[in-house]
User: What shape does this take?
Amino acid sequence: MKLLSGVPGWTVTADVVVIGSGVAGLTTALNLRASGLSVLLVTKAQIDEGSTKWAQGGIAAALGPGDTPDQHKKDTLIAGAGLCDSKAVEVLVTEGPEAVRKLIARGAVFDKSESGEISLTREGGHLRNRILHAGGDATGAEVSRALLAAVQEDSGIEVIENALAIDVLQNSAGKVYGLTLHVIGAGSRDGVGRALARAVVIATGGLGQVYSQTTNPSVSTGDGVALALRAGAEIADVEFIQFHPTVLWRDESLSGQQPLISEAVRGEGAFLVNNKGERFMKDKHPQADLAPRDIVAKEIFRQMKESNSPHVWLDATGIKDFPDRFPTIYASCLENGIDPTKQLIPVSPASHYASGGVLVDLVGRTTIPGLYACGETACTGAHGANRLASNSLLEGLVFGTRIASDIAQNIGAEIAAEEIAQPTLLIDPAIKLTLQLAMSQGAGVMRSESSLRETLATLEQLGTRTFTQPCIEAWEVSNLYLLATAIVRAALARTESRGSHWRSDFPDSSDKWLQRIIQSYDVNGDWHMRFEEVK
Assistant: This one.
């Protein structure tokens, strides 16, 4: 199955194509260059407009006195609610400290304490201070800056901006030999073209735009996961969508990206209260306001339902140096008429992070030869049912390095271009908001069989609204449609509550569900599902 698109009008070649310019894509590209391979870096907007720069909290790594990778591993496994792949977690936490040191060597500057040591803070689910941050609440922007500077100095990395990856190119044996892409703009590479390569790495970030309100930027339409699905790759854990508990509430009518209030604010002493002024998290979890995100998001949702209110409140008035510690959040609050040093901040949960994605092994290989996935696009199994705070940037660093090493060791010869006719898909872009609202209402923080079946019925109806004019909006909506269907199918199948998947009709977790739901989508547009016990 392919997206309906025009005939490619130009061709470019490289050893490896990397799709995405966040921490995962940039790290992979730089490490590929260290092995002498040429890289084509394809990014959907400007090179610095992905999700990485929006990461406020930081990077988790066992670098503090008395902290160890084993303790980091334990916290990650607890947050993952029994579904983490322990080997993937082991890789993440043991290789994480060195990956962060290499990032610092590339020029990333993290905040330091008065003594000159790197300042470490704590976020939900962590039992130790192990979060590095930069610019107070601008860690992602600093990580992106440092990696981009290194990329831009390397003549062996060609960057194509404003380019949407449409589909991978495969030969008759299924092996990937490049991709088709659409570049917006004037010049010889305007419109649809193709990039030929010996390997393709998908690092396109998240899929938050499948919901009506999200912390993700507008480019996060899950293009990479959908592209892999159409190529026949397996995906896993897609029912586990993490809703960030504290997103600045502005108005229910506003869709798209919403301002995030980092968990680090609670790490510095802020706390949640309901409309009665009660600190409702104190009796719900030993870590209270710093409980794992799924627990906090669920309790906020309960409080909102009980009070029939669209939000709860975050009290950060006790943080003395708020403007200096959290300058980005402070400015965002002021823009929305709130002074967080004097007023309570209205917050509610919003779609934030996909713990699942394209199923990969410990070196980032998908189930399709020649196709790799990294970062939020991938499902390494390290996050299980609920990603531990600030493990995402770390995952991009660690697994981006591993992918580059595997490609360098195993990259094959050039594959001759081979045109293969396949059925095509294109959905009417006008369905976007209807799809997003249906997903938020029926497959959001709380789900049930009835809400999920209603959502699936809506999606099936929307899927009949096909389109015949290829364009960016139609390609994005077609991707969102595939991902929404996959999320709802998995959420219906998992008849329990675990991690960030909450079924009101199955409120408890069940040992029979200590297994991963794996899906694929064939050339005829049929879905397949299998189950695999967690290792």
The chain is about 30% helix and 20% strand.
